[in-house]
Amino acid sequence: MNSMYSPNPSARLSLTLRLVLLCVALIASACTSTGPRPSVTNKQELTQADKALIHARLARNYLAQKQYAVAKSELEKALRINPGHSDSNYVMALLMMELQQYDTAEKHFTRAVKSNKRNSAAAHDFGMFLCQTGRERRAVDYFELAAANPLFERSELSYMRAGECLSKISDPAAEQYLKRALSVNPELRPALYQLAVLKYQAGAFLSARAYVERYLAVTPPRAEALWLAYQVESKLNALEVAEAYRQLLMKEFPGSEEAGLARALSSRPSS
What we know:
Elements: H1 9-32, H2 48-64, H3 68-81, H4 86-98, H5 102-115, H6 120-132, H7 136-148, H8 155-167, H9 173-184, H10 189-201, H11 205-218, H12 223-235, H13 239-252, H14 257-266
């Protein structure tokens, strides 16, 4: 590794999955776009941006297939033609993340966003990169930039990631960003869950209950959510409801860490 920054393995795995999904989406978008495309059959000279875009699209194909060496070659061609091409720098940044060359990835993320501030995908993923490498407040600037683009269809994700990122450092502004995410998509499950956690940690148990219930209304329960629900109801002295959540947790997720904690409660001697 050639960098001082080293995201943890689970963060990198998450990025890998998102990268594959992103590349598939980009390829589909390239195939279905009704906008003008560069054509090598007409007699008009292609612009530098057009030429770079051709190589960038080829690189996206190779990246989706995990053919990293060929993808890198195509991106190098694109950047020789147009060093400031936003999409080419963005895809190169993602490739460098896959290759764990984090300093180089940061350089290309910076170029991608600087050359086109409306490249919201690049801004969002740069924010993810910065958050994973311990620069949470700087990351929020890029999440904001991504969400500010009215053509970006997933602004709620940028607001949510900003909230999650600030939660890591216990910044009170985290709640504001999570609520902005819910104002765009009221059923955004990770935002509902994170707000429930924040409210529980703050001792606002009625608010925590409301977010837990909203979360459970839009998604099948998960172990961590049932354990949180048990804790919230216990704090509210709703012992029957709490016990129902505990029993459901042990039944549905018997091998989970949370179920182990729930079973330990039943083994305690009564006072």
